[in-house]
Amino acid sequence: MKLKFKLFILFLLCFQNSFSQENENAALLKVLLTKFYANEKPIVKNRLQLLSFYCNKAPNNEETIEVINKSEFLKKHSTVIKKQIDITLQEDWSKEFDILFTNQHQYLKSKIQNCVSLEDFQKVSKQFGENNQRLMIVSKPMYFATNYCLVKVAFYRSIEHNSGSFFLFEKINGIWTIKETLNEWNT
């Protein structure tokens, strides 16, 4: 009986941690979407969407090491951050989208509509033949030191005019805030 109870408690702790992680990811995603969709118009009457959101979480790669090496603060936490580099990641943002947009944040949702695949984005871009559509790609958040997180955001347009950067978040009084922008790049 004691073993079953201990297993049950362990299951509850794991479940709670997983759900908590999704809520934290959703909170970070809300900050980023609010920032980058601030100037976008709601999509109505088949208006062309100029900024689309990529469904998959981009895997954290060796570019993260470059960011760590340029920041004294991140160097102090490099072991924990480097453990979260995984180029085989196969996750999407659907759970976080559900948390964010079920019965709330409908104005922001009207600007984003739904996330898209790379193929869908390229199809729409090719259909209109203009180089004004962008695809916002957000990596899986890398948490460290209890109240810090590192997230990469990239904007794909075509073979040129792409950009991106890393955002260092700090959780202050329960609210994720962008503390610093790191490693900005453009092509």
Structural summary, described in words:
The protein is α+β, with helices and mostly antiparallel strands and 187 residues long. It has one domain (25-186). 41% of the residues lie in helices and 22% in strands. It is built from seven helices and six strands. The chain has helices at 2-36, 63-69, 72-75, 78-82, 94-101, 106-112, 118-128, and strands spanning 51-53, 134-138, 142-144, 148-156, 163-172, 175-186. Strands 1, 2, 3, 4, 5 and 6 form a six-stranded mixed sheet that branches. A hairpin with a 2-residue loop joins strand 5 and strand 6 (175-186). The longest helix is centred in the first third of the chain and has 35 residues, at 2-36. The chain is globular. The relative contact order is 0.17. Mean pLDDT is 87; it is low at 5-19.
Write the layout of secondary structure elements.
Blueprint: H1 2-36, E1 51-53, H2 63-69, H3 72-75, H4 78-82, H5 94-101, H6 106-112, H7 118-128, E2 134-138, E3 142-144, E4 148-156, E5 163-172, E6 175-186
Parallel strand pairs: 1-2
Antiparallel strand pairs: 2-4, 3-4, 4-5, 5-6
Protein name: Lumazine-binding protein
Organism: Flavobacterium dankookense
Keywords: Signal
Helix-strand pattern: HEHHHHHHEEEEE
User: How large is the share of residues in beta strands?
Assistant: 15-25%
Please estimate the helix content.
40-55%
Number of strands: 6
Regions with pLDDT < 50 over 5+ consecutive residues? 5-19
Structural class: alpha+beta
**Whole-Å distance between the termini?**
62 Å
- Please summarize the sheet with the most strands: 6 strands, mixed
Protein name: Lumazine-binding protein
Signal peptide: 1-20
Keywords: Signal
Organism: Flavobacterium dankookense
